[in-house]
Specification:
Pfam families: Hydrolase_3. One of its GO terms (molecular function) is magnesium ion binding. It comes from Blautia hydrogenotrophica (strain DSM 10507 / JCM 14656 / S5a33) (Ruminococcus hydrogenotrophicus). One of its GO terms (cellular component) is cytosol. InterPro entries: HAD-like_sf (IPR036412), HAD-SF_hydro_IIB (IPR006379), HAD_sf (IPR023214). The chain has 8 helices and 11 strands. The chain is of the alpha/beta class. The protein folds into 2 domains: 91 residues, 3-Layer(aba) Sandwich (Rossmann fold); 100 residues, Hypothetical Protein, Haloacid Dehalogenase-like Hydrolase, Chain: A, domain 2 (2-Layer Sandwich). Strands 8-7-6-9-11-10 form a 6-stranded mixed sheet, with helices on both faces. Strand 6 and strand 7 form a beta hairpin. Helix 5 packs antiparallel against helix 8. The radius of gyration is 18 Å and the shape is elongated. The two termini are 29 Å apart.
C-alpha cells in the first residue's frame, strides 16, 4: 500500500494514520517500501501520528514497529485486536481491556476436549498447556516465542487480552467449536474468525 505523498500530510493541521501491517503497510515479503518510509518520516516531522494496528500480541507489535522505525514519539501500537494501546514515547501501555481468567479456563478446557490447539499470551509471548505442530507453526510465522505451562490461569500475572483456538486443516471443526462454546461465554466473551484457521476470543 502507498500511504500517500508526503505533501498531503503537510497541508493538514494534524492527522492520525492507522495502518495494519500484513498485506497493508508491508508487502508479501514483510518489507516496507522506501516510498512509504519517506512518507511516514514526513508525516512525523509534520506533527502527525502513526498508529500500527494489528491482531498480533503486543510483544510482536512492538518488535515489528521497532524494526520499521515506528517506535518513537508520535508512534503508537494497537495490539490484541484493539484490547491494548501502547505509546512509544512513554514506553508503556496507556489503555487496555482484559477479561476474567475464569473464562480462559473454560475455553482452554473445552478446546482440549475437542482436540483443538488453544493459546493465550503473557508479556513476553505465547502461553499454552500443550506443545503441538500448530503452536510451532504459529510461533515460527509470527516470530513470537512460546512457553508451555501446567495451568495458564496461574501462569499469568494479570487477566488475559486474547485467546486463539486454531486448526490449520479443518475450519469446520472451529465452526463447531464456536457453536459449542457460545452458551458458556454468552455476555462475557465474543468470538470471531480472523482467518479460516484462527478462532479468536
Amino acid at each position: 500500500m502507498n500511504i500517500g505523498k508526503g505533501g498531503f500530510f503537510m497541508k493538514i493541521k494534524e492527522k492520525i494514520l492507522f495502518t495494519d501491517l500484513d498485506g497493508t503497510l508491508l508487502d508479501d515479503q514483510k518489507n516496507i517500501s522506501r516510498e512509504n518510509i519517506e512518507n511516514i518520516e514526513t508525516a512525523l516531522r509534520g506533527g502527525h501520528k502513526i498508529v500500527v494496528t494489528t491482531g498480533r500480541p503486543l510483544v510482536s507489535a512492538i518488535a515489528q514497529s521497532k524494526s520499521l522505525g515506528l517506535a518513537h514519539e508520535g508512534c503508537y501500537a494497537i495490539a490484541f485486536n484493539g484490547s491494548c494501546i501502547y505509546d512509544f514515547s512513554k514506553n508503556k501501555v496507556v489503555y487496555s481491556v482484559q477479561f476474567p481468567r475464569e473464562y480462559l479456563r473454560i475455553v482452554f478446557d473445552e478446546a482440549h476436549k475437542a482436540g483443538l490447539h488453544v493459546q493465550t499470551y503473557c508479556d513476553h509471548g505465547i502461553l499454552s498447556e500443550r506443545e503441538n505442530e500448530s503452536l510451532k507453526r504459529y510461533s515460527q510465522v509470527t516470530k513470537v516465542s512460546y512457553e508451555i505451562v501446567d495451568d495458564v490461569t496461574t501462569a499469568l500475572d494479570s487477566d488475559p487480552y486474547k485467546i486463539i483456538v486454531m486448526d490449520y486443516h479443518d475450519k469446520n471443526r472451529l465452526y463447531d467449536f464456536q457453536d459449542h462454546i457460545a452458551p458458556m461465554i454468552e455476555g462475557k466473551l465474543q468470538s470471531f474468525f480472523s482467518c479460516d484457521w484462527y478462532l479468536e476470543f
